[in-house]
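Q: What structure does this chain adopt?
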Amino acid sequence: MRGVQQRVAAPLGLVAVMMTAASAQSWVVRDPQEAPPELITYDRHRGRGVMLQSKVLGDFSTMVQVSEWDGIRWTQLPVSVPGLPYLDHCSFTFDPVRRQSILLSGGVVVGSAPATWAWDGTSWTALPGMPSQIASHRAAFDESTASILVFSIVSRLTWRFDGTTWTQLTFTPLSTSVPGAAWTMAYDRVRARTVMVGGNATAVTFEWNGTAWTAETPVPFQAFGFGAWPAIYDPQRGKVTLPNLNGTSWEWNGSNWLPFATPTTPFFQNPLDRHFFHDEQRQQLMVYIDSSRSTWTQTPAAWVLRQRLVTDRSQFSADHPRGDVLAVESVWSNLVFPIPASVLRTTTLRRTPGGWQEFGSLGLPGRLGTAQSDRDLLGVIYRFGGTTGAPALADTNELWAFNGTAWSLVPSPSAPAPRANSALAVDPIRQRLVSFGGSQGGGGTLLNDTHEFDGTQWVQMSLPNSPSPRVFAAMCGSATLGRVFLFGGASSLLGVPTFTDFWSYNGTNWTQLPQPPFGGPILRAYLSDFPAAGSIVLTVFTEVPGQPDTWRWNGTAWSVLPDAPLGGDAGTLVTEPVLGQVYAPWSGALLTTTPSIAITFGSGCASSLGAPSLRPFGLPWLGNASFAFDLTTALPGLTAGLVAFGSQPAVIPLPGGCTAWFAPEATQLVLANAGFGSVSLPVPSLPSLLGAQLLAQGVVLDAAVAQGFALSAGIGLVVGD
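A:
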């Protein structure tokens, strides 16, 4: 009996260890990562959109990350696709029979070995790998044969995968009529046909009837880049459609593509950056836009923005009086370089609990290479300098101020000479805006002058010492350390070679300080104040494998922090104004001493058809309105279940060999559909909740087992920031 007690108590020891680990400093990612989605499908069983992204790590390795759409927002899950280095020429489709999202790799790039993986909402399972002849393919689930139909544009072969076995079907005699690279497939549930359409100037359409492809001859219509306009099945219309964003979409009636009117989008359009899926549970057509990292719902009258993230063209400011973060994003609507002034604009965004809210330009003109400050004791956010678009490509010395509502040009006759790519920061002790360096004449001349702005006029400072001329320097002010700090920068607009020197400025002089012990060159660097720790944080982007990239300076010495998930060269840092932590807004990661934790411990007891599973959706961080639990069972007819909650771990033996891992203090009803249900548990944005602990366990009723119920394993939660 003593040995049994030790075994059942072991999971509680794990809980204690993990709860203690909550005090370790770490980065917590709240939003989908920086990479745009490579693939999106819709899980009809669980009512979730599933997004896969190839994420480039700081050491230049790659991983495939998973995010899910719950009808409110995308939430990144703490799992990745195992053994898949990069998404390239892959397909992703949902298998409603086996209730799994199936990823078919087999790309043509080095390292993308043929593989097949299944995602069930909790974990990935390796399936029999696809034949090597399949590459650059499209796939759709054929419900008439309960299998996935795969067509390879490279080998022109058609294959069927039933979840266990790959079967080659007829050699597809499409000859020269085969669609080009821009092509797409979808299954027509009403007509029991798989529809494939592609082409460049004029659409080419084929249908698969379960045994062979048939070339269709619809009335020709202009194709519009099918590689970026995927065919989807619209259950409301009962047809395969090609949704569009310009006011006209298309549907296939079995013999023709017919146009139908849809709302015109109000946002920037790039024909290569949209991913459609139909949210059948909520009866909504959704689109994710790569270029703006935004998710939209189509209504009969308009497209409605549901979630907005920020892009790698953004600059960020901590708005301390308002307690949030402001982003200014450069936007252009073509890929012509140099960027014409006619298409260059800006948009201003503010971080909200639901993501980022976009307000438009608010009077700010489009510029490249500007510098931007925080909003602190000066009461405004400043934006300085920059270059106009083509054909002028003129450097400016404009100073723009944001008062929380709109941008306005600040009269400044004594402003520094026109420039771009300078550094800007607020000295919070002396209440001055400090500008350093930059470039003139398209980068032909580099500067190292220091200027201060007191809210009325600019003054060029005459200083005994100064960093050398440079562009792209990282700079921030620190109230706790009483200085403005500058690190690195580059000696040309190409970004190399880079500097690794570190300086402080007190209003009368620049002083060079010790730099971190780097082991190689630095490509870019970012600085942020870290008031919660009385220090500043430096993150560098380097090509040296294994070299630490995130450091903290406490005014005396450097120490290493966990690597920041900046996402390659496009990251940046900003102070999170409420918590005083460091925030990496493009990756949505917060450097915290109170990480959010959700761990599974103990074991459950099975129903008559298998054990139920309770899985947290997201992590319990302050302000996470989408935090929830998914309760999945093996009982297809289950319509309801319970999630029990408690605060103190315990071992409570129950009938049927079941164990309750705590004494329940509250329960929440879960309404289920075909054995799957979800219960929302939004986390308020209250600092008093930091470190709060909660235990949860799923309960389902089953008259077919002696005890009449089944339990999931336990879940331990720690509320973090």
